Protein backbone atom coordinates (compact mmCIF):
# COMPACT_ATOMS: atom_id res chain seq x y z
CA UNK A 1 0.00 0.00 0.00
CA UNK A 2 2.90 2.37 0.70
CA UNK A 3 4.09 2.36 -2.91
CA UNK A 4 0.48 2.77 -4.10
CA UNK A 5 0.02 5.86 -1.93
CA UNK A 6 3.23 7.34 -3.31
CA UNK A 7 2.09 6.72 -6.88
CA UNK A 8 -1.30 8.28 -6.10
CA UNK A 9 0.48 11.31 -4.64
CA UNK A 10 2.65 11.73 -7.74
CA UNK A 11 -0.46 11.28 -9.92
CA UNK A 12 -2.21 13.98 -7.87
CA UNK A 13 0.76 16.32 -8.41
CA UNK A 14 0.63 15.70 -12.18
CA UNK A 15 -3.15 16.20 -12.36
CA UNK A 16 -3.07 19.40 -10.32
CA UNK A 17 -0.44 20.91 -12.61
CA UNK A 18 -1.52 19.52 -16.00
CA UNK A 19 -5.30 19.14 -15.72
CA UNK A 20 -6.32 21.63 -13.02
CA UNK A 21 -3.70 24.18 -14.24
CA UNK A 22 -2.75 24.87 -10.63
CA UNK A 23 0.44 26.76 -9.87
CA UNK A 24 3.23 24.21 -9.14
CA UNK A 25 3.90 25.73 -5.70
CA UNK A 26 0.28 25.22 -4.64
CA UNK A 27 0.29 21.78 -6.26
CA UNK A 28 3.36 20.77 -4.25
CA UNK A 29 1.84 22.02 -0.99
CA UNK A 30 -1.46 20.18 -1.53
CA UNK A 31 0.32 17.01 -2.63
CA UNK A 32 2.67 17.14 0.37
CA UNK A 33 -0.25 17.41 2.80
CA UNK A 34 -2.25 14.63 1.13
CA UNK A 35 0.83 12.38 0.90
CA UNK A 36 1.63 12.96 4.57
CA UNK A 37 -1.88 11.96 5.67
CA UNK A 38 -2.01 8.93 3.35
CA UNK A 39 1.39 7.71 4.50
CA UNK A 40 0.48 7.77 8.17
CA UNK A 41 2.17 10.90 9.49
CA UNK A 42 0.12 12.19 12.47
CA UNK A 43 -2.02 15.15 11.33
CA UNK A 44 -0.40 17.51 13.82
CA UNK A 45 3.02 16.66 12.37
CA UNK A 46 2.19 17.11 8.69
CA UNK A 47 2.42 20.90 8.81
CA UNK A 48 5.70 20.64 10.75
CA UNK A 49 7.19 18.39 8.04
CA UNK A 50 6.05 20.77 5.31
CA UNK A 51 7.56 23.81 7.04
CA UNK A 52 10.78 22.00 7.92
CA UNK A 53 11.24 20.76 4.37
CA UNK A 54 10.71 24.21 2.87
CA UNK A 55 13.05 25.92 5.33
CA UNK A 56 15.90 23.42 5.17
CA UNK A 57 16.08 23.44 1.38
CA UNK A 58 15.69 27.20 0.92
CA UNK A 59 18.33 27.90 3.54
CA UNK A 60 20.97 26.61 1.12
CA UNK A 61 19.54 28.20 -1.99
CA UNK A 62 18.04 31.64 -1.45
CA UNK A 63 21.40 33.42 -1.69
CA UNK A 64 22.50 31.45 -4.75
CA UNK A 65 19.27 31.84 -6.73
CA UNK A 66 18.64 35.50 -5.91
CA UNK A 67 22.26 36.56 -6.47
CA UNK A 68 22.31 34.59 -9.71
CA UNK A 69 19.18 36.38 -10.87
CA UNK A 70 20.65 39.77 -10.01
CA UNK A 71 23.90 39.04 -11.86
CA UNK A 72 22.03 37.73 -14.89
CA UNK A 73 19.79 40.78 -15.06
CA UNK A 74 22.81 43.09 -14.80
CA UNK A 75 24.62 41.21 -17.60
CA UNK A 76 21.55 41.76 -19.78
CA UNK A 77 20.76 45.37 -18.86
CA UNK A 78 24.36 46.60 -19.05
CA UNK A 79 24.81 45.41 -22.63
CA UNK A 80 27.45 42.82 -21.64
CA UNK A 81 25.40 40.04 -23.26
CA UNK A 82 25.18 42.07 -26.49
CA UNK A 83 28.94 42.70 -26.42
CA UNK A 84 29.65 38.99 -25.96
CA UNK A 85 27.34 38.06 -28.85
CA UNK A 86 28.78 40.73 -31.16
CA UNK A 87 32.34 39.61 -30.44
CA UNK A 88 31.58 35.95 -31.10
CA UNK A 89 29.80 36.73 -34.37
CA UNK A 90 32.83 38.69 -35.58
CA UNK A 91 35.13 35.80 -34.64
CA UNK A 92 33.09 33.03 -36.29
CA UNK A 93 31.76 34.88 -39.35
CA UNK A 94 28.73 34.02 -41.50
CA UNK A 95 29.84 30.50 -42.44
CA UNK A 96 29.95 29.41 -38.80
CA UNK A 97 27.28 31.71 -37.46
CA UNK A 98 25.43 28.82 -35.78
CA UNK A 99 28.62 28.10 -33.80
CA UNK A 100 28.68 31.73 -32.69
CA UNK A 101 25.09 31.38 -31.50
CA UNK A 102 25.96 28.19 -29.61
CA UNK A 103 28.88 29.80 -27.76
CA UNK A 104 26.75 32.89 -27.05
CA UNK A 105 24.06 30.70 -25.50
CA UNK A 106 26.63 28.83 -23.40
CA UNK A 107 28.49 31.90 -22.13
CA UNK A 108 25.46 34.11 -21.53
CA UNK A 109 23.30 31.20 -20.37
CA UNK A 110 25.50 30.43 -17.36
CA UNK A 111 24.55 33.58 -15.40
CA UNK A 112 21.11 34.09 -17.02
CA UNK A 113 18.00 32.11 -16.08
CA UNK A 114 16.40 30.36 -19.03
CA UNK A 115 13.37 32.59 -19.56
CA UNK A 116 15.49 35.75 -19.27
CA UNK A 117 18.07 34.34 -21.66
CA UNK A 118 15.39 33.31 -24.14
CA UNK A 119 13.72 36.71 -24.22
CA UNK A 120 17.07 38.50 -24.37
CA UNK A 121 18.85 36.40 -27.02
CA UNK A 122 16.08 35.18 -29.34
CA UNK A 123 15.57 38.66 -30.86
CA UNK A 124 19.31 38.61 -31.60
CA UNK A 125 18.78 35.33 -33.46
CA UNK A 126 16.09 36.93 -35.63
CA UNK A 127 18.28 39.94 -36.39
CA UNK A 128 21.21 37.73 -37.43
CA UNK A 129 18.97 35.42 -39.50
CA UNK A 130 17.47 38.43 -41.30
CA UNK A 131 20.87 40.03 -41.89
CA UNK A 132 22.45 36.89 -43.39
CA UNK A 133 19.27 35.56 -45.09
CA UNK A 134 19.35 32.31 -43.08
CA UNK A 135 16.62 30.21 -41.48
CA UNK A 136 15.80 31.51 -38.00
CA UNK A 137 15.41 27.92 -36.80
CA UNK A 138 18.84 26.97 -38.17
CA UNK A 139 20.43 29.96 -36.42
CA UNK A 140 18.41 29.65 -33.22
CA UNK A 141 18.50 25.96 -32.28
CA UNK A 142 22.23 25.94 -31.32
CA UNK A 143 21.65 28.92 -29.02
CA UNK A 144 18.54 27.39 -27.46
CA UNK A 145 20.29 24.05 -26.98
CA UNK A 146 23.03 25.84 -25.03
CA UNK A 147 20.50 27.76 -22.93
CA UNK A 148 18.60 24.55 -22.20
CA UNK A 149 21.71 22.62 -21.17
CA UNK A 150 22.95 25.36 -18.83
CA UNK A 151 19.44 25.53 -17.31
CA UNK A 152 19.30 21.79 -16.64
CA UNK A 153 22.94 20.94 -15.86
CA UNK A 154 24.84 23.86 -14.38
CA UNK A 155 24.63 25.70 -11.06
CA UNK A 156 23.69 28.41 -10.12
CA UNK A 157 20.50 27.60 -12.06
CA UNK A 158 17.68 26.70 -9.63
CA UNK A 159 17.18 22.98 -10.34
CA UNK A 160 20.83 21.85 -10.37
CA UNK A 161 21.62 24.13 -7.41
CA UNK A 162 18.71 22.61 -5.46
CA UNK A 163 19.79 19.08 -6.40
CA UNK A 164 23.33 19.80 -5.21
CA UNK A 165 21.86 20.76 -1.83
CA UNK A 166 19.54 17.73 -1.68
CA UNK A 167 22.26 15.18 -2.49
CA UNK A 168 24.99 16.97 -0.51
CA UNK A 169 27.08 17.24 -3.67
CA UNK A 170 29.89 19.72 -4.28
CA UNK A 171 28.79 22.78 -6.24
CA UNK A 172 32.18 23.37 -7.85
CA UNK A 173 32.69 19.71 -8.79
CA UNK A 174 29.16 19.50 -10.19
CA UNK A 175 29.90 22.56 -12.31
CA UNK A 176 33.20 21.06 -13.48
CA UNK A 177 31.60 17.72 -14.41
CA UNK A 178 28.63 19.58 -15.83
CA UNK A 179 30.80 21.50 -18.27
CA UNK A 180 32.41 18.23 -19.40
CA UNK A 181 28.96 16.82 -20.21
CA UNK A 182 27.42 20.07 -21.42
CA UNK A 183 29.85 20.87 -24.23
CA UNK A 184 29.51 17.62 -26.25
CA UNK A 185 25.76 17.62 -25.56
CA UNK A 186 25.38 21.12 -26.98
CA UNK A 187 27.55 20.24 -29.99
CA UNK A 188 25.24 17.35 -30.92
CA UNK A 189 21.89 19.01 -30.09
CA UNK A 190 22.99 22.39 -31.49
CA UNK A 191 25.20 22.77 -34.59
CA UNK A 192 24.99 19.10 -35.66
CA UNK A 193 21.20 18.79 -35.35
CA UNK A 194 20.60 22.29 -36.79
CA UNK A 195 22.03 21.14 -40.14
CA UNK A 196 18.80 19.19 -40.69
CA UNK A 197 16.55 22.18 -39.94
CA UNK A 198 17.63 24.64 -42.64
CA UNK A 199 14.39 24.27 -44.60
CA UNK A 200 11.93 24.75 -41.74
CA UNK A 201 9.94 27.90 -42.53
CA UNK A 202 9.88 30.53 -39.78
CA UNK A 203 8.61 34.09 -40.01
CA UNK A 204 9.32 35.82 -36.70
CA UNK A 205 7.71 39.21 -36.22
CA UNK A 206 9.82 42.30 -36.87
CA UNK A 207 8.98 43.55 -33.39
CA UNK A 208 10.98 40.64 -31.95
CA UNK A 209 14.23 41.68 -33.58
CA UNK A 210 16.87 42.93 -31.20
CA UNK A 211 17.08 46.61 -30.34
CA UNK A 212 20.82 47.05 -29.92
CA UNK A 213 22.57 49.55 -27.71
CA UNK A 214 25.02 51.95 -29.39
CA UNK A 215 28.59 50.63 -29.52
CA UNK A 216 29.89 53.39 -27.26
CA UNK A 217 27.41 52.47 -24.50
CA UNK A 218 28.56 48.85 -24.25
CA UNK A 219 31.09 47.59 -21.68
CA UNK A 220 34.41 46.27 -22.98
CA UNK A 221 34.73 42.73 -24.33
CA UNK A 222 36.98 41.37 -21.60
CA UNK A 223 34.98 43.18 -18.94
CA UNK A 224 31.79 41.55 -20.28
CA UNK A 225 33.27 38.03 -20.43
CA UNK A 226 34.97 38.21 -17.04
CA UNK A 227 31.96 39.71 -15.23
CA UNK A 228 29.56 37.14 -16.71
CA UNK A 229 31.80 34.14 -16.07
CA UNK A 230 33.36 35.13 -12.73
CA UNK A 231 31.12 32.72 -10.71
CA UNK A 232 32.28 29.83 -12.91
CA UNK A 233 35.94 30.81 -12.58
CA UNK A 234 35.68 31.09 -8.79
CA UNK A 235 33.68 27.89 -8.24
CA UNK A 236 35.93 25.75 -10.40
CA UNK A 237 39.13 27.45 -9.25
CA UNK A 238 38.42 27.13 -5.52
CA UNK A 239 37.26 23.52 -5.95
CA UNK A 240 40.55 22.59 -7.63
CA UNK A 241 42.49 24.55 -4.99
CA UNK A 242 40.71 22.71 -2.17
CA UNK A 243 41.76 19.39 -3.71
CA UNK A 244 45.40 20.50 -3.45
CA UNK A 245 45.22 22.03 0.07
CA UNK A 246 45.80 20.20 3.35
CA UNK A 247 42.56 20.09 5.34
CA UNK A 248 44.41 20.86 8.56
CA UNK A 249 45.99 24.05 7.30
CA UNK A 250 44.81 27.60 7.97
CA UNK A 251 44.61 28.24 4.22
CA UNK A 252 42.08 25.44 3.81
CA UNK A 253 39.57 27.21 6.03
CA UNK A 254 39.82 30.47 4.08
CA UNK A 255 39.58 28.70 0.72
CA UNK A 256 36.57 26.72 1.99
CA UNK A 257 34.89 29.99 2.98
CA UNK A 258 35.56 31.60 -0.40
CA UNK A 259 34.46 28.41 -2.19
CA UNK A 260 31.01 28.49 -0.60
CA UNK A 261 28.54 29.04 -3.49
CA UNK A 262 26.73 31.79 -1.63
CA UNK A 263 29.98 33.66 -1.02
CA UNK A 264 31.02 33.14 -4.65
CA UNK A 265 27.75 34.62 -5.92
CA UNK A 266 27.91 37.55 -3.49
CA UNK A 267 31.51 38.41 -4.45
CA UNK A 268 30.74 38.03 -8.17
CA UNK A 269 27.74 40.32 -7.88
CA UNK A 270 29.71 42.97 -5.99
CA UNK A 271 32.44 42.89 -8.65
CA UNK A 272 29.88 43.12 -11.47
CA UNK A 273 28.08 45.97 -9.71
CA UNK A 274 31.25 47.98 -10.19
CA UNK A 275 32.55 46.61 -13.52
CA UNK A 276 29.20 46.55 -15.37
CA UNK A 277 27.44 49.23 -13.34
CA UNK A 278 29.26 52.03 -11.56
CA UNK A 279 32.29 51.84 -13.87
CA UNK A 280 29.94 52.27 -16.86
CA UNK A 281 28.35 55.37 -15.36
CA UNK A 282 25.22 53.77 -13.90
CA UNK A 283 23.78 55.22 -10.70
CA UNK A 284 23.53 53.02 -7.61
CA UNK A 285 19.76 53.63 -7.35
CA UNK A 286 19.30 52.35 -10.90
CA UNK A 287 21.38 49.24 -10.20
CA UNK A 288 19.34 48.47 -7.09
CA UNK A 289 16.13 48.81 -9.14
CA UNK A 290 17.56 46.24 -11.59
CA UNK A 291 18.22 43.86 -8.69
CA UNK A 292 14.71 44.30 -7.29
CA UNK A 293 13.19 43.51 -10.70
CA UNK A 294 15.42 40.44 -11.07
CA UNK A 295 14.15 38.93 -7.82
CA UNK A 296 10.58 39.30 -9.06
CA UNK A 297 11.57 37.15 -12.05
CA UNK A 298 12.62 34.22 -9.83
CA UNK A 299 10.24 34.58 -6.89
CA UNK A 300 7.95 31.84 -8.16
CA UNK A 301 10.90 29.56 -8.92
CA UNK A 302 12.02 29.91 -5.29
CA UNK A 303 8.53 28.99 -4.10
CA UNK A 304 8.41 25.95 -6.38
CA UNK A 305 11.76 24.79 -5.00
CA UNK A 306 10.37 25.29 -1.48
CA UNK A 307 7.30 23.21 -2.36
CA UNK A 308 9.51 20.41 -3.64
CA UNK A 309 11.42 20.53 -0.36
CA UNK A 310 8.14 20.07 1.50
CA UNK A 311 7.26 16.93 -0.48
CA UNK A 312 10.75 15.55 0.01
CA UNK A 313 10.52 16.03 3.79
CA UNK A 314 7.11 14.37 3.97
CA UNK A 315 8.48 11.34 2.11
CA UNK A 316 11.46 11.22 4.46
CA UNK A 317 9.43 11.62 7.66
CA UNK A 318 6.95 8.95 6.62
CA UNK A 319 9.74 6.48 5.98
CA UNK A 320 8.48 5.87 2.46
CA UNK A 321 11.70 7.01 0.82
CA UNK A 322 13.50 4.12 2.47
CA UNK A 323 10.73 1.71 1.46
CA UNK A 324 11.08 2.86 -2.16
CA UNK A 325 14.85 2.57 -1.94
CA UNK A 326 14.58 -0.97 -0.59
CA UNK A 327 12.14 -1.87 -3.36
CA UNK A 328 14.35 -0.45 -6.09
CA UNK A 329 17.50 -2.15 -4.81
CA UNK A 330 16.44 -5.37 -6.51
CA UNK A 331 16.15 -3.69 -9.91
CA UNK A 332 18.99 -4.55 -12.25
CA UNK A 333 19.29 -0.92 -13.37
CA UNK A 334 22.19 1.44 -12.82
CA UNK A 335 21.16 4.09 -10.23
CA UNK A 336 22.06 6.93 -12.64
CA UNK A 337 19.89 5.44 -15.39
CA UNK A 338 17.08 4.92 -12.88
CA UNK A 339 17.30 8.54 -11.71
CA UNK A 340 17.27 9.74 -15.34
CA UNK A 341 14.29 7.53 -16.25
CA UNK A 342 12.11 8.59 -13.32
CA UNK A 343 12.90 12.25 -14.00
CA UNK A 344 12.20 11.90 -17.73
CA UNK A 345 8.79 10.30 -17.10
CA UNK A 346 7.77 13.03 -14.64
CA UNK A 347 9.06 15.72 -17.02
CA UNK A 348 6.97 14.40 -19.93
CA UNK A 349 3.90 14.21 -17.68
CA UNK A 350 4.29 17.54 -15.87
CA UNK A 351 6.23 19.70 -18.33
CA UNK A 352 8.45 21.45 -15.77
CA UNK A 353 12.14 20.54 -15.65
CA UNK A 354 12.46 21.95 -12.14
CA UNK A 355 9.44 20.05 -10.80
CA UNK A 356 10.61 16.81 -12.44
CA UNK A 357 14.12 17.06 -11.04
CA UNK A 358 13.15 17.97 -7.50
CA UNK A 359 10.36 15.37 -7.32
CA UNK A 360 12.80 12.64 -8.37
CA UNK A 361 15.30 13.77 -5.75
CA UNK A 362 12.74 13.23 -3.02
CA UNK A 363 11.90 9.75 -4.29
CA UNK A 364 15.35 8.23 -4.81
CA UNK A 365 17.44 10.05 -2.22
CA UNK A 366 17.94 7.08 0.16
CA UNK A 367 18.73 4.71 -2.71
CA UNK A 368 21.50 6.96 -3.97
CA UNK A 369 22.99 7.34 -0.49
CA UNK A 370 23.69 3.62 -0.26
CA UNK A 371 24.56 2.97 -3.90
CA UNK A 372 28.10 4.33 -3.89
CA UNK A 373 27.33 6.67 -6.80
CA UNK A 374 29.01 10.06 -7.12
CA UNK A 375 26.31 12.57 -6.03
CA UNK A 376 27.63 15.13 -8.52
CA UNK A 377 26.81 12.71 -11.34
CA UNK A 378 23.36 12.06 -9.86
CA UNK A 379 22.66 15.79 -10.15
CA UNK A 380 23.66 15.70 -13.82
CA UNK A 381 21.70 12.52 -14.60
CA UNK A 382 18.55 14.05 -13.13
CA UNK A 383 19.30 17.32 -14.93
CA UNK A 384 19.50 15.47 -18.25
CA UNK A 385 16.25 13.59 -17.61
CA UNK A 386 14.48 16.81 -16.68
CA UNK A 387 14.91 18.10 -20.26
CA UNK A 388 13.31 15.09 -21.98
CA UNK A 389 10.84 15.77 -24.85
CA UNK A 390 9.35 19.19 -24.20
CA UNK A 391 5.81 19.29 -25.62
CA UNK A 392 2.38 20.88 -25.14
CA UNK A 393 2.52 21.08 -21.33
CA UNK A 394 5.82 23.02 -21.29
CA UNK A 395 5.87 26.81 -21.46
CA UNK A 396 9.17 26.64 -23.35
CA UNK A 397 7.44 24.77 -26.18
CA UNK A 398 4.94 27.58 -26.68
CA UNK A 399 7.51 30.35 -26.27
CA UNK A 400 9.54 28.79 -29.09
CA UNK A 401 6.50 28.25 -31.31
CA UNK A 402 5.14 31.77 -30.91
CA UNK A 403 8.44 33.66 -31.06
CA UNK A 404 9.67 31.77 -34.11
CA UNK A 405 6.15 31.65 -35.60
CA UNK A 406 6.38 28.02 -36.77
CA UNK A 407 3.74 25.27 -36.98
CA UNK A 408 3.05 22.73 -34.22
CA UNK A 409 4.53 20.00 -36.44
CA UNK A 410 7.73 21.96 -37.04
CA UNK A 411 7.95 22.90 -33.36
CA UNK A 412 7.95 19.21 -32.44
CA UNK A 413 10.50 18.20 -35.12
CA UNK A 414 12.87 21.00 -34.13
CA UNK A 415 12.37 22.10 -30.52
CA UNK A 416 11.01 18.86 -29.02
CA UNK A 417 13.55 16.68 -30.79
CA UNK A 418 16.38 19.02 -29.75
CA UNK A 419 15.35 18.72 -26.10
CA UNK A 420 15.19 14.93 -26.43
CA UNK A 421 18.69 14.84 -27.93
CA UNK A 422 19.92 16.93 -25.00
CA UNK A 423 18.41 14.45 -22.52
CA UNK A 424 19.78 11.31 -24.21
CA UNK A 425 23.26 12.62 -25.03
CA UNK A 426 23.45 14.15 -21.56
CA UNK A 427 22.81 10.74 -19.97
CA UNK A 428 25.44 9.15 -22.23
CA UNK A 429 27.96 11.77 -21.11
CA UNK A 430 27.14 11.15 -17.45
CA UNK A 431 27.61 7.40 -17.87
CA UNK A 432 30.98 7.93 -19.56
CA UNK A 433 32.07 10.17 -16.69
CA UNK A 434 30.86 7.57 -14.18
CA UNK A 435 33.00 4.96 -15.94
CA UNK A 436 36.03 7.29 -15.85
CA UNK A 437 35.79 8.53 -12.26
CA UNK A 438 34.22 5.38 -10.85
Task: Explain the overall architecture.
Helices cover 78% and strands 0% of the residues. The protein is built from 19 helices and no strands. It starts with a helix and ends with a helix. The radius of gyration is 22 Å and the shape is globular. It has 438 residues and is mostly helical. The longest helix has 35 residues, at 43-77. The protein has one domain (2-437). The mean pLDDT is 87. Belongs to the GntP permease family. It is found in: Cell membrane. The chain crosses the membrane at residues 30-50, 57-76, 96-129, 136-154, 174-197, 218-242, 254-278, 298-316, 336-365, 377-400, 420-437. It is a multi-pass membrane protein.
Descriptors:
19 helices, 438 residues, globular, single chain, mainly alpha, 78% helix
Total domain modules: 1
**Beta-sheet strand percentage?**
under 5%
Structural category is mainly alpha
| C-alpha-based Rg, rounded | 22 Å
List the total number of helices.
19
Care to count the β-strands?
0
Q: Ends: how far apart?
A: 36 Å
- Topology order in helix (H) and strand (E) letters: HHHHHHHHHHHHHHHHHHH
User: Regarding quaternary structure, how should these chains be classified?
Assistant: single chain
Look at the structure and give the mean pLDDT.
87
- Describe the largest sheet: none
Stretches with pLDDT under 50, minimum 5 residues: none
Shape: globular
Organism: Echinicola rosea
Main location: membrane
Keywords: Cell membrane, Membrane, Transmembrane, Transmembrane helix, Transport
Protein name: Gluconate transporter
